Amino acid sequence: MKLRVLARLIQIQRVLVRHGLDEFVRETHLYRPLRFVFLASPWTWLERRKQAPRAERLRLALEELGPIFIKFGQALSTRRDLLPPDIAVELAKLQDRVPPFDNATARAIIEKSLGKPVTEAFASFEEQPLAAASIAQVHAATLHPTSGAAPGAATQPGAEVIIKVLRPGMRETISRDLEVMHELARLAKANSTEARRLRVDEIVDEYEKTILDELDLMREAANASQLKRNFEGSSLLHVPAVYWDLCRIDVMVMERIRGVTISDMDTLRARGANIAMLAQNGVKIFFTQVFRHNFFHADMHPGNIFVLIDDPANPRYAAIDFGIVGTLDIRDQHYLAENFLAVFDRDYRRVAELHVQSGWVPPDTRVDEMESAIRTVLEPIFDRPLKDISFGTILLRLFDISRRFDMRIQPQLILLQKTLLNIEGLGRDLYPELDIWQTAAPILREWMSDRISPRAQLKHVRRNLPDILTSLHALPSLMKVAVQQAEDGKLALGVRSEEITALRREMQESEQRRNRTLVGTALGFGSLLWIGFGLPPGIVGWLLLLAAAVVLWRARRRG
Q1: Which secondary-structure segment (H or E) carries 433?
Q2: Most exposed of 1, 123, 198, 340 (fewest Cβ within 10 Å)?
Q3: What is the dihedral sign for C-alpha 247, 253, 255, 259?
Q4: Distances in Å between the alpha carbon of 78 and those of 86, 87, 484?
Q5: What is the pLDDT of residue 527?
Q6: At 306, is the secondary structure helix, strand, or coil?
């Protein structure tokens, strides 16, 4: 273990002891390999513990430990159904009330990044920050009339903006804590079969990519621009415009949002906002981002969500803080959509089959047994509003299923799971009567229908036609080389066990996809010939039949 990591572990332990939280560590599997750190530390026995309420002690400890721990508390704060009320309320303060850093330091960072004084860059600048979070803090300002903005941003004199400034020393702090997380993951894997099943090392790897991306404010600005394009003209979500001329790696300037925070329910009700519509639109935004756009805001805790209520009957969401966004592999996206739809239809056997086909459970899993287990967990929650569903109990039951069937955690889906929990937590606070199933199902069904439509197939063929033609052009020479190597005894195939498993799975899936693929390809090429070359439909049909006959004849000869 590196000396720097050990020093940080001792520092973490001291903070936990000072706030009276070390008993939590003693209950985990990490205590055994780290017990020497606890038992050999003098403050374990001598340091006086604070007498503040436990929730406040927990919040203060997370704030003292730094950004990674603060983000952990932020994620927990959205799950009021899983936490005692006092802890949930206290952790909610981590969303936008983290202690700010010095105002003079913020001004110095802005001036160094922009290469000019604040008074030259902005018409006005508020020294006191609007909000402070774990990674950065935000100051209000107004622009000079010549400031450049993204399309759609205000450029009139006095346009209101916010300036996001990265906390000093963030990269060094996070780099150190990531080393600690990697070491803890290693210890956990070595001492816990459950940690090995959960693939904690891969989860930390995935988290490392996410948190390091968040330290680049130019990347966040680009994320905001992409999200804004995706929802251009939409009545669901407003995304603030970016002022690119004033953005740097540690400074970002965006349009200021004047709205009500989503957690301020008293103000929303007093202004007559349509709360039921807000809750439904939150679910629509999530599924639209994940499946239609495949680009989703992955840090949707209440501190990052506002409501624009110029028209209370049709309130509109506004989002900020785009440092963490997620995308999905097309394969994962497809399997998730099919899983959701199968759940909506109560087709539990299909859910079990999809888990086997996707490789999320071992290939020898008994589908009928898994079907029965999933039915037992999900059947009781249908046709019930959020307020009557204990997601805490459901999560525990699902964890039991995952252990029983050796289900592997998918690190690439961690951001999606986190975002889904955030959305569910917001929905529970906003409108407990919300029926998630009825709101989400039509969106997914429409997306699935669009994916297999003739128009989508034609678009797919047109987009990939250059690659298809290039591959076909290169295929004869590649096959000739392979045949020559086989004849010379030099053809070597390197296949690992995981590749064999993936190949088996792919063969099972290909059998199911074969007919759909042939029909889709025929329709796509037929449409291309018809539209692109103006051939009559009858000739197109005969050409397709002739091509199919040739393919079958050559296949029979090879057989």
Answers
A1: none
A2: 1
A3: positive
A4: 13, 11, 62
A5: 46
A6: strand
Residue 79 structure tokens: 């799950």
Output the average pLDDT for the chain: 76
Tell me how far apart the 2 most distant CA atoms of the chain are, in Å: 91
Question: pTM for the full model?
Answer: 0.69
**pLDDT of 530 strictly over 80:** no
Query: Which residues contact residue 11 at a Cβ distance below 8 angstroms, ignoring those fewer than 6 apart?
Result: none
Q: How far is CA 65 from CA 98, 100, 134, 169, 278, in A?
A: 12, 15, 11, 14, 35
Task: Supply 107's token pair.
Answer: 């001004």
Contact 354, 461 (CB under 8 A): no
299 is a catalytic site residue = yes
143 - beta bridge partners?
122
Strands 160-166 and 136-143 turn out to be antiparallel
What H or E segment, with its residue span, contains residue 193? helix 193-198
Angstrom distance (rounded) from CA 409 to CA 234: 35
In this structure, are strands 316-319 and 237-238 parallel, antiparallel, or unpaired? parallel
Q: What are the pLDDT digits (tens) for 173-202?
A: 888 888 888 887 887 788 777 677 667 787
Catalytic residue among 299, 311, 347, 450: 299
DSSP 502-517: HHHHHHHHHHHHHHHH
What CA–CA distance (Å, rounded) separates 43 from 40? Answer: 9
Task: Grade residue 326 by pLDDT with cuts at 50, 70 and 90.
Answer: confident
Token pair recorded at residue 525: 């090429």
Residue closest to 125 by CA, chosen among 134, 114, 135, 133? 114
- Nearest partner of 244 among 207, 218, 265, judged by Cα: 218
DSSP 482-509: HHHHHHTT-------HHHHHHHHHHHHH
